[in-house]
Structure formats: structure tokens, C-alpha cells
Amino acid sequence: MAHLPLGQQLLDSCAALLLLLSFAMLSQRRVVTLVNLYAVQGAVLAAATLLLAWRTGETHLYISAALTVGLKVVLLPWLLYRLIRKLEVYRDTEPLFNVSGTMLVGLVIVVFAFSLAQPITRLASTATRSSIGIAIAVVLLSFLMMITRRKAISQVMGFLSMENGVLFGAMSASYGMPMVVELGIALDVLVAVLVLGVFFFQIRERFDSLDLHHLESLKERE
Amino acid sequence: MELLLLLILPIGGAAWLGITGAHRRAPEVNAVVSLGTFLAACALAVRVIRHGDLLLGEEQFFIDPFNVFLVTLTAFVGLTTALFSRPYMRIEVDHGRLTPRRLRLYHSMYQLFMFTMLLALTTNNMGLMWVAMEGATLSTVLLVTLYRTPGSLEAGWKYFILCGVGIAQALFGTILLYVAAEKVLGSQGVTALLWTHLDAVKSQLEPTVLALSFVFLLVGYGTKVGLVPLHSWLPDAHAEGPTPISAVLSGLLLNVALYAVVRSKVLVEGSVHSQLPSRLLMGFGLVSVVVAALLLWRQRDIKRLFAYSSIEHMGIATFAFGMGGPIANFAALLHMTVHSLTKSSIFFTAGHAAQKAGTQEIDRIRGLITLSPTVGWGLMLGSLAILGVPPFGVFTSEFLILTTAMRTQPWATPILLAALAVAFAAIFSKVQPMVFGETTGRRLPHAPALLPVFAHLAIVLLLGLYIPPYLADWYRAAAHLIGG
What we know:
The complex is a heterodimer.
Chain A: H1 6-27, H2 31-56, H3 59-87, H4 99-123, H5 132-148, H6 152-174, H7 179-207
Helix pairs in contact in A: 1-2, 1-5, 2-3, 2-6, 3-7, 4-5, 5-6, 6-7
Chain B: H1 2-20, H2 26-51, E1 54-56, E2 61-63, H3 65-94, H4 100-122, H5 126-144, H6 150-185, H7 195-200, H8 207-225, H9 233-240, H10 243-272, H11 276-296, H12 302-323, H13 326-357, H14 368-371, H15 373-386, H16 393-408, H17 412-435, H18 451-465, H19 469-482
């Protein structure tokens, strides 16, 4: 195997770490740990962006990294911790499927993600194109997490980690999106979490719990 | 200038209504701001018709006949809904379903929602369009849960999660588009998401990646259009939210999402040179029409009934855009217009009908015509219009779509016709006893504003009898832009 430059090796490790974190989130049932994992995921994403900025010398990637740190390592986890403390939800109930089964499905998803990434990898000219598969895998694993969880807050963690995956994909395929779009996305994510905070209190006020099985009455009746 | 006003008025209105709070005159402020927005939209339309396409704000905004017609429609329905909601929301407060504080949230979010839709329509940047579409979801989530009933919370949660996941797919599609475009337009990245630039180089974009991108974009924005099988949020959100919101969700948001799909289709079709985008649109459209028509039979809630009817009509428009060609595109645009006007007027009357009966259950709404002839006739005429009875405009657009289908996609015609017949029987058999028959209702504390209902229906009738030449030219220019 040819020698890869150090920066490249570090970037690949970051990608591998992201995938690992996705699996960790998939199996984790304690809500606080989930938020910790999300913060670490944000930190790894920011580190990868920083490395890339250093290697390519693109200034907007530095701003993007700063934005990631500010929003996903500091602000959002802080908001989520506060929310958890106020709502006193610490553990998710038994997931809909058992953990080992979910893990196996997750493995299949990773293989599928890499095959899906092939045409994009061929097109992209970036040094990081090999990690596009990982980005798609992170997106799909988060999706799986949303499907298998019952507590509203764990579903939201899945949603947020999905957005991390999408941004990582943008970074590895094209060194990030134009600045105005990235700012817009960051704003949307922040507003989404704030809206959810309000929303959780409404659910709680009404049902005394954040368990989603209360929210299953609107079905097509025979 | 007009564009600036168009965008500043609603967002300024949202801030003003949010800050001043539960002011007694808030509904009037809401209506006046909407009127200003509508006038700005008209001015913009006149300018585009006279001088052709506009590129504004360092190419970040692009106005052509296709989107300016939707801008005008959006601003118009926004205005009439604001007029309708004035007495409607007062009655809701009197009935004790809402507090004045929540009314403040309602008015502020209403204007914010208008802003996000107008931004999504006028922006030239595919990335900003995504941001605005997500903003449209976020601004309406808290409106769907306005009543804080268990049902509305569930509907809001479903809406948020399903549209959130959908919109994440659309973001991925946008990124793929960007990756492909960057190859051709250079890596500076500033122009690579601008629709006009993409449109100019679309034949050089890598087809495989663009096809993949289109699938993601269609699934993402298609969730918001309410295409089956991504539709399950739609009936809940329409039924559980306040009626003015049902009217703007159904009449406007679905159109804006379809607009995003069509804009993407124009790009992808120029690149892939295959039938894939049109086949996908036709397939999704046809499935939506059939499934929605069958599900109409099962509905017991008046607002759910018409929500499913919206899925059906969005399916018809999507199918027509899938067929492509000048006539089908023309018909699809006309269908979007008449559906939006008719459906919002139906929701207006259905809302008052539910207020009178004290329930949204179809079985318990009876004899509207004896209690209030205007509400009864409004609902009846609206239903007939939406069912495609001539001479209403829906008949014209459906007729054009069906005749085009007979020529280009003969296999689909019997399916469409059968679905339309099933929908007709389902809706008519449910509306008829609600309008006629023994009455059960009560009087309302404020006189309902029914002018919007009859104004909408009159326009739909007019469009069915006679399309003014300048309007026809306008539609034709838009249909030409979509091509296909």
C-alpha cells in the first residue's frame, strides 16, 4: 500500500471515528450519553473540517469548522442537557428491536451505503472522496436510529446526527457548500431544536411523558 | 424594489406581530400586511410580464413567468386567508379553544410562513431554496399544535419528523447537485448552486450523479407535496391544525414544494437524456391519485376528507408535469391555480361548518343550508368545483390532462378516469347530507367572512369559462420554460 500523507491519514481516521460513533449512538439507550456522543460527533466533524481547511487552504472551511464547534459542540448539547434536566427523561424504554439485531441491520446498511457512493466517488475530485461512503452510512444509520426508538428525544438525536452525516458528505464530496447555504442550514438546525424544546413541553404537559406510544391514535380507522 | 417589499413586508410583519403581542387589532394588521405583500407581488408580476425575466440581488433571486405566477397566487391566497381568519379565530377564542397569547403566536408565525414560501419561490439558489423549505416546516409546526390537544400534538410531531427526514434527503440531493455542478462551473462554489447557471450548463452535468440527486430531491420535496407513500403527515396536519392553516398548507405549501420538484426536474432532464425523471413523476403522481381516491371513502372527518382530496389533486398535477410537453405543463399550472383557490375556499367553509356543528365529524354535521345558506352553498359549490364539474376551472385542467394522457400515455387514462370517478362518488356522497338534511348546528358569535370563499370560486368559474389571453400567454410562457 502506498504511503498516504499524514493529513490524509488523520482525515480517514476522523471518518472512521464518525462511523464508529454512529454505531455507538445506535446502541446507546441512556439519553445523556446520547447527547455526549452527539457532542463528540460534532467535535470530530469540526476536526475533520479543520484538517481539510489546513490542507486545502480554503478560508470558508475555517469558518465552517468554527460554526460546527459553536453550534454542535457547545450550544446544542447545552440546550439538550437543559431540556433533559427539566423534563427528567434519562433512559429510553426498551427499543422496538433488540440491540444486536439493529446492529446487524446497521452492517448491511453500511455495505449498501458504499455501493451507493460509487458513482459519486468516481465523479468527485476531492482528496476526501473515499469517505463519501461513510457519510451516506452515517445518514442511513441515523435514519435507522429514528425508526427504532420510542422516546421523542432519541428520535431528535437521530435527526441531528443525520444532519451531521449530510454535512460530512458535502465536505468530503466538494469541500463544503457555499457559505450562505451553510449559514442557512445552521440557522435552521438551531431553530429546529428550539421549536422542539417548546414542543416537548407541550407533549409533556399533555401526556406527562415523552413516550411516543401516546402519539399513535391518529390512524385510518376501519 | 418590488421584490424587496415582497420579502420585507411579511418578515417585518412577523416581527411586529410577535413583539406587539396580543393586540386587539392584530388580525387587522395581519390582513393589511398581507394586502401589502399582494400588491408587491402584483407589481412584480407586471414588471416580469412587461420586461421579461429578472435577475436581482447579485443573481441570488431569479423571477420568470413560472415562479411569478406562483408568487402572485401565494400572496393572493395569503391575503384572502388573512381576511377569513379574522372572524374565524375570534370565534375560536370565544369558544374557548384558544387564548389571546396563542393568537399572537399564530399571527406572527403566519407571516413568517408566508415569508419562507415567497423566499423559496423567488430565490435562484437551490441551497437557499432548501433552507426556505425547511423554514416553512418549522414555522408551521407550532401552528399545527396550536390547540394543544393530544391529536394536534401527534399531528405536529409526525409533521416535524416526517418532513424533517424528507427535507434531509432533499439536502443530500442538493449536495449531489452541487458536486456535479462544481465540476463544470469551477470550484469557487459561488455560482454552482444558482439555478440559472445550472440551467445553462445542464447538458454537461454528469448524468448518473444527477439521476441520483433527482431521486433524493423528489423523495425530499415529494414528502412535502404529499405524494403517496410519503403522505402520512398531511391529513393529520390538515385536520388537527386551525382551519386557516389547513387552507394555506393545502393551497400554498403543496404548490411551493411541487415547484421545487419541477425546478429540479428541468435541470435533471437536461442532463440524463432518459425518461427517468418523467417516469418517476408519473408513477408517484398516479399512485397518489389512486390511493387517495380509495382512502377518501374511509374518511369521517370533514377536514381529513379534503386533505386526501389535496393528495389526489397534487398527484394529478405531478402526473401532468411528468408527461411534460406544452399542453400538459399548461394544464398542470392551471390545475395548481384552480386547486389552490378551490381547496382553500372549501377549507374556509368546512371550518365554519365545523364551528357550527361543534365537531369535525362528518356524521354530525347536518343541514348547513337551513342554518346558514352561504356556508352551505359555499361548501356545495366548492365541492362540485373540486370534483371537476363543468364549467369550473378544475374541469378544464383535468380535461386537458386527460386528453394529453390519451395521446401520449394511453395506458394511464383508464386508471385516472376510474380514480376520478371514485373520488367523485366518495366526496359527493359525504358532502350532500352535510349540506342538506336536518340541522344540528348553532349560531356563531361573529359573522363569518365568506367573501374570500365566493371570490375564489368566482375566479375558478371564470378560469373554467374563459382564460384571458394575457393569462394564457403567461401560462404558456411558464409551460415553455418547464419544457419536457
